Amino acid sequence: MYQKNIVTLLFLCIINSVFSQKTAGDYLNSGIEKGEKNNYHAAISDFTKAHELDPTNPIYLINKSKAYNALQNYDSATIVLNQAAKLFPDNKDVKISKGWVFIYTNEFDLAINLVNELKKAGHTNSEVSILSGLAHQLKGDFNQAIVDFSVLLDENKNDESILMSRAESYMSLQQYSKALSDYNTLVALQPKNSYYLIGRGSCKKFNNQLNEAMIDFNKALLLEPKNSDALTERGRLKYTLGDQHGAIEDYNKSIFLNSVNPMAYSCRAISKAELSDTQGSLSDFNKAILLEKDKPENYYFRGLLYINLKNKKLACADFSKAGELGFMKAYEEIKKHCN
Questions:
Q1: Alpha-carbon gap, residue 148 to 153, rounded angstroms
Q2: What is the pTM of this model?
Q3: Residues ≥6 apart with Cβ < 8 Å to 62
Q4: Which of 133, 149, 207, 224 is deepest in the core (most CB within 10 A)?
Q5: Which pLDDT tens digit goes with each residue over 23-79?
Q6: 228-69-30-88 Cα dihedral, nearest 10 degrees
């Protein structure tokens, strides 16, 4: 009897052990769940175990790379994808994942080269078009970005993220009527989305529809009274309308809500300069440059302030910096004041 019980227990232990062993699929699902809860390190561990159990499927390494991306550990993501590329050299999903790492690391030319390679191999699905559109947009090739986004919108005309991306590309090309059409669609889809209203308001401002732009900014602020972006954009519109005091009031509120918004400081600096508050303008330009060191216009306008303050040395240094950053108008001031 005793021996029979022992045999039964051993059999049950073996059965339990077999059924309690996790499969690669179990680790994959577990890793995805942990990733959704922002527990990326634990997710990476699960994806690693899944790949060890099933090294014939690239999905585990792809998900592992995504978890590293979420941690902004792009070097590790690259190592994982290079490993995947060796194991699965022709897999399009591995290549697309590498393309996203190139996007995150600002290597847009590499992303575009990879997209072209995928297209040449006959891969023209939506994932490739999204990658291509964003890579071209971020590189500054807005025309090609619009082509890619339009292909995607032919498949789903109400894809909000793609509509927004295309509208932004149209705005960059100063094609405001086309941008406005996309923003109108977005607002129709989500009439209470303050950011769509802000985007449409900005587009209307550039399209010289100033009253309608004000209506959109006010609607956005009714929805979100503490939206610093809406306050900044309404301030810019008030500046265009000649209301410098009203503009400064909006910039003050925006900065109170978000003290690291360089645009609010630079816009307030310009309004203060219009009101002959030279020192206040200078202080704001200093803050804007501290927050955004590569915006040439701030150096240019600060240089003009230094000219008014008769500080030629600092003015010329700012004009030179603005020119180096691509603001060619600065060289006209260098010819006037610095030779």
A1: 9
A2: 0.82
A3: 81, 84, 93, 94, 97
A4: 149
A5: 999 999 999 999 999 999 999 999 999 999 999 999 999 999 999 999 999 999 999
A6: 150
